[in-house]
Known about the structure:
single chain; mainly alpha; 19 helices; globular
Amino acid sequence: MESLFGLEVLLAVLILILYMLSAQWLENKACEYFHETNIAIGLGALCGVGVYMFTGGEKIVFSTGIFFYFVLPPIIFAAGYNLKSRLFFINLGFISLYGFLGTFLSFVTIGALGVFFNANGALSETDSLSTKEILLLSCVLSATDTVAAISVVKETKYPRLNSILFGEGVINDAVSIVLYRTVEGMGDEFGLWEGVMLVISFVYTTCLSIFIGFGSGLATAWIIKNMKELKEHPERETTLIILGGYVSYIVSELLGLSGIMTIFCCGIALSHYAWFTLSKESQQGTSLVFTVLSQGAEAFTFTYLGMTITTIDWEDWNILLLVCMFVAMALGRAASILISSALVYLIQCGHFGLDTKNICVAWFSGLIRGAIAFALVLQVESEHQNVLISTTLGIAIVTTVGLSNLMGPYTRFVGLEAKPSQEIYFELMSQTANTDDSIYSQQLEEIGLSWFHMKWQKFDEKYLKPRFGGEEKAPLEKSVWDKLWAEDEVEINKLG
């Protein structure tokens, strides 16, 4: 077994090298009909089949422990630490609705349709799934994979849509895991009371995960700010940043919370406070190191997913169930996007920041499923476990290999045009979104959400930054968005 593990590692490393080289080659050729993730999955599948044939039936098993504790954390932490805060917080309304409410709507829709399909012959009577198994599968299929989507919807061409898809993707993964663990902890019977408890548990878990993430980030930032001797050792500063994020993730996971949400918030807090007190070497090094770790982990995820294709026996595949759940997933995504967008339209009193083209692309990109969904379904303990795993694996491979290649043509089909800037933004509690400075300054005093932002900015400047560090801002009477514009100027100056 030890020699087999070494062979797996060697093959994975070789595939990662080919993945990086192919990604660069495809970028140079401007090829949009073939995504580099297909190469990683295809080569991983070939290696999995090869190991199975030449070792007399040994299978490469997807380890959920390795994935959740070593592969996923650097991806999410890098996302929070290298976050483009201006675009993220300007679009926080859309991101929150699509990420939180949209994921919950998707889960409810997939669950309802799954129960309907299951009751009407998707499986035989002897293999019929229970309601809890259907709900667990619904949680699994609610976890989107936006890596391929945002690699096609480039930030330089579609900055706003890229920001929304990215932010929604991170929140969506965290929400799906929270829903999964909540449903998993319930009994086999599911009624109205169980539904109420699911919502309560979801809110509690989410809030506590966010609190632990920001708390860990603030604690790490305080240590870096007060131990000025660390500036003489950039490698220690960088290591402390990494360990601070990793500790928050592990604590959250041990408490049964959302490690993804926790480490993402920790990364944001460290970027907002600790980055400005780091030495110049650490400022440059942390961003580069986290980006390298994130890209390597993403490539390994696709490779690992392909390698595990031999873990499912053919007799465990149920094509009818797979098709039915794919249809349910597509309709669930449509419900989450359309209902959330309609809610935005009502709150904005007829003003809407995303047109139908952007909404269509957001719907299509959310159909892709990946390693998180597969890792979750592997944890299901059920007599129908292999059927659930094969269904999830089939959807993950079909959507990742098929739909990722169609992202580019689809954006052209719906007529999405590259727009480097957009003027209308959605705020959760506002009824207008004019970004003119003079008008917007007046709105800051009149709109509830902007009032909250002003209060938070004052609290941040007066109490948090003196203790934990952070960038010196303009006078507080200026618009909160002036702070966000300034951050972009700082980033541009860094590049220069």
